[in-house]
């Protein structure tokens, strides 16, 4: 990367097509970033909502500039417009502009249940 210094924080879901699209752009350009999983850590979701002013993800903060509810494609475009990267014609290793597949959505639901302590879906009686 020949562009200016870049500090990237990505607020992503564990399993999500949009979030994976952002990760794919980070891999495509070999960009270092701090990933904050808003499913595994609800404090990161709160932080994202406070910084972005809205609840939708993914959100990507680059050198203090918040890109809210963005696709990987939009992140790539913004990085190019700002001179942080030179846009490459090669495809990323995952779709950069698509929602979750049904399988990803199911995995996300399971992860959210596990994070909330309800991994089994069964009622548990405590003494």
Detailed description of the structure:
With 127 residues, the chain is of the alpha+beta class. The chain has helices at 17-28, 42-52, 72-81, 102-115; strands spanning 8-12, 34-37, 59-62, 65-67. The protein has one domain: Glutaredoxin. It is built from 4 helices and 4 strands, in the order βαβαββαα. Helix 1 runs parallel beside helix 3 (72-81). The longest helix is centred in the last third of the chain and has 14 residues, at 102-115. The protein starts with 7 loop residues before the first strand and ends in a 12-residue tail after the last helix. The model has no long low-confidence stretch (mean pLDDT 87).
Topology:
Layout: E1 8-12, H1 17-28, E2 34-37, H2 42-52, E3 59-62, E4 65-67, H3 72-81, H4 102-115
Parallel strand pairs: 1-2
Antiparallel strand pairs: 1-3, 3-4
Helix pairs in contact: 1-3
């Amino acid at each position: 990367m020949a562009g200016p210094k870049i500090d990237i924080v990505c607020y992503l879901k564990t399993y999500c097509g949009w979030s994976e699209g952002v990760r794919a752009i980070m891999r495509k350009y070999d960009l270092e970033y701090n990933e904050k999983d808003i499913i595994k850590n609800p404090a990161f979701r709160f932080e994202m909502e406070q910084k972005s002013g809205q609840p939708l993800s993914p959100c990507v903060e680059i050198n203090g500039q918040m890109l809210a509810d963005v696709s990987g494609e939009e992140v790539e475009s913004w990085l190019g417009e700002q001179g942080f990267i030179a846009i490459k014609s090669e495809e990323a290793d995952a779709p950069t502009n698509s929602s979750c597949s049904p399988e990803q959505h199911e995995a996300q639901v399971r992860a959210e249940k596990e994070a909330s302590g309800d991994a089994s879906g069964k009622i548990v009686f405590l003494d």
